[in-house]
Amino acid sequence: MAFQVILLSGMIWYCFLKWLKYYKVPDNFPPGPPSVPLLGVLPFMQGNLKDAMQRWRKEYGEVVGLHLGSELTVVLSDFDEISNAFKDKRFTGRPKALTETMTAFFASHPGEKGGGIVFSEGEQWSEQRRFALKTLRDFGFSKKAMEDVILEEVFKMIQVLRADEDSMSLNQVLSVGVVNSLWTILTGQKLSHGDQTVMKIVTGTDDFINNESMSGPLMMMPWLRFFPYIKEKFQASKEAPLSMRKLQNKMVAQHEEEQSGELDNNNGVRKESKDFIDVYLDKIKETRDRKSSFFGDQGRLNLQRSLTDIFGAGTSSGSSMLLFAFLYVIKYPKIQTKVQDELSRIIGKNTVSLDDRSNMPYTDAVLHEVMRHSCLVYAVPHATTEDVSVQGFDLPKDTVVYANLWQVMHNTDYWQDPEIFRPERFLDRDSKFRRDERCIPFMLGKRFCIGQSLALQQLFLFFVTILQHFELQAPGGAEAVSIEPIVGFVHQCPKYSVKLVGRM
Ligand code: HEM
Fold first, then answer.
1. CB-count exposure of residue 197 (10 Å: 0-12, 13-18, 19+)
2. What is the Cα–Cα distance from 399 to 471, expressed in whole angstroms?
């Protein structure tokens, strides 16, 4: 009881101080909608953050200033402005409130510090990101070696689909394929298609993030997690990340055991590293600089958090994008037929290879239109790490800066009929694939997605192989299929059923 009284008086003080600070909106801050202390614009948002961003843009322009919760926030909607800002190191922070909630969510015990890639900043972020990019690249993110890992999962999936060609949900099958290939890259281990342990963890984590959404109360006001009821709910949602941590601990311990066994058997010489955990453990061992994010216990925590980040960021996004891809070709059967004609010409009955992509411009165009139209990540939150200026406005350090990706990829001044799904916009006059710098599903700049190459490889190999083996039909007819995304933390693909008709 005494603790709750102290907590309550602490909260009242906190609110009062926040309230005072609130009226100190910096001079020369961008214009935007009115806010109330502590909650900011939340009470007036009328729906989700995505729709609100588009309304604010219409009313206040390409640079909008507001309070989300109690954080000073700016929404950028113009491509050039986003591009300039996000290539600048001073925009590579993450929002403090979001980081606090997500750090507490993933922590294995109260008070555990943050780390890893997605929710860190400064030197720690830059070291961890650089290491992850290089290590994943060495394993073949950008090389053909990755093809084997992905294709193995694709073929397992085809077998599962063949066994049940009747009307079914693709969701589960695709998720398993994507989860398994990433698990192999990170841990060196293969999961069987029926293994539900990792899938349950992935689903549990996604549920929390999507239910909260980007502007959910907990994401804006992390202290809410100490209040009764919310506290219990928050604790319950931590079950998935805690199970993940246990599994990761087990994996790391196994790797350490194997490494020391190898040293004993090979006169102190290690064989070549095999997976992400192996390389990371080597890095921890060789790090002598106490300030480094790879040193000692800090290094071990960063290993755990980086594994969680890569796995968390890579699994649901990869499978959601695939789900969207199949949804569009079910909705538009003529486009599906054109892809199948192209793949019959180029691949026939052979096994697809990443090299085929350059000979399949139409398929490439369809996949880019899937990424543009679905706009999986509709807004990306960063924060300023110093005082900066944007379009003549002043933004203090720690201002949250959202890139309104939905606007970039659906801007009517740039894209013709952006609401229409039209792959031809990515083809030139000679029907060759034409990249567009404004199709940025993985963002751009200093923090762009580190899994871009892997995601593109997965998308191509899964998509082409499934369309090679099956024709996909909507059991209730294509007209009835909705392509309207569900707005959560990111866009989720609407649920749909599919009938598979064998082609070979
Ligand atoms: C179609 C699938 C994917 C899409 C659309 C996507 C999109 C994005 C976007 C928009 C960001 C935010 C960038 C920023 O903050 O500026 C991001 C970050 C990130 N993504 Fe992906 N991603 C996908 C797949 C993957 C995969 C497969 C992995 C892992 C192998 C991955 C790992 C990450 C990580 C670790 C970050 C954080 C980067 C940082 O904070 O520096 N993503 N992704």
1. exposed
2. 49
Q: Give the Å distance between the CA of 307 and the centre of ligand 1.
A: 13
- Which domains, from first to last, does the chain contain? 2-111+119-502 (1.10.630.10)
- Asked if residues 86 and 445 have their Cβ atoms less than 8 Å apart, the reply is yes
Q: What is the rounded CA–CA span in Å between residue 12 and residue 151?
A: 57
486: phi then psi, degrees, rounded to nearest 5: -95, 130
Q: Is 376 in the pocket of ligand 1 (CB under 6 A)?
A: yes
292 φ/ψ angles, rounded to the nearest 5 degrees: -70, 145
Helix (H, G, I), strand (E, B) or coil at 100: helix
The answer to whether the annotation marks 449 as part of a ligand binding site is yes
- pLDDT per residue as tens, the chain (504 positions): 666 667 677 777 766 666 655 556 789 999 999 988 888 998 888 889 999 999 999 999 999 999 998 899 999 999 999 999 999 999 999 999 999 999 999 999 988 999 999 999 999 999 999 999 999 887 766 566 788 889 998 998 898 888 875 555 688 788 888 888 888 888 888 877 667 778 788 888 888 887 777 778 888 889 999 999 999 999 999 998 899 899 899 999 999 988 877 655 655 555 565 789 999 999 999 999 999 999 999 999 999 999 999 998 998 899 999 999 999 999 999 999 999 999 999 999 999 999 999 999 999 999 999 999 999 999 999 999 999 999 999 999 999 999 999 999 999 999 999 999 999 999 999 999 999 999 999 999 999 999 999 999 999 999 999 999 999 999 999 999 999 999 988 999 998 989 999 998
Instruction: Give the number of residues written for the chain.
Output: 504
User: What CA–CA distance (Å, rounded) separates 304 from 154?
Assistant: 28
Return d(Cα 456, Cα 443) in angstroms, integer.
14
Cβ of 370 less than 6 Å from ligand 1: no
DSSP class per residue in 412-438: TTTSSSTTS--GGGGB-TTS-B---TT
Residue closest by Cα to atom 41 of ligand 1: 447
Which string of DSSP letters, residue by residue, matches 23-44?
Answer: T-PPTTPPP----BTTTBTGGG
From start to end of 266-406, where are the E strands?
380-383, 388-390, 393-395, 400-403
Q: 472 pairs with which residues across the strands?
A: 500
Q: Give me the helices (H) in 361-400, please.
A: 361-374
Ligand 1 pocket check for 380: Cβ under 6 Å: yes
Ligand 1 centroid distance, CA of 203 (Å): 18
Alpha-carbon Rg for the chain, nearest whole angstrom, is 24
443 touches ligand 1 (CB under 6 Å): yes
